[in-house]
Amino acid sequence: MRLHMRTSVDIPDPLLRRAKKLARERGTTLRALLLDGLRSVVEKSSSMVGAYRMKDCSTGDGGLVEGLSWSDTERMDALVYEDRE
């Protein structure tokens, strides 16, 4: 059973030199440094999937947007979901 895969990645020389230097300073390997960085990016990305912050349309003391009534559900939906298109 295969637990990992070898791959090739083109890394610009200046970045590779900085990464090697950082790995030496941290007392680790370039491979470990690359894996930590990749893992961090993947974990951050997967934690953001599905995250949505609703636009704050409130005004004053918790009332509705001016000109909007509680029975105007179609307009409320349009205001709430306008950034999701």
Describe this structure in words.
With 85 residues, this protein is an all-alpha fold. It folds into two domains: 13-48; 52-85, no CATH class. It is 49% helix and 0% strand. The protein has three helices and no strands. It is elongated and about 65 Å long.
Query: What is the count of structural domains?
Result: 2
| Shape by Cα distribution | elongated
What kind of sheet is the major sheet? none
Could you give the distance between the termini?
44 Å
Oligomer: single chain
Structural class: mainly alpha
Low-confidence segments:
none
What is the count of helical runs? 3
Radius of gyration: 24 Å
Number of strands: 0
What share of the residues lie within helices?
A: 40-55%
Output the helix-strand order: HHH
> What value does the average pLDDT take?
83
Into which percentage range does the β-strand content fall? under 5%
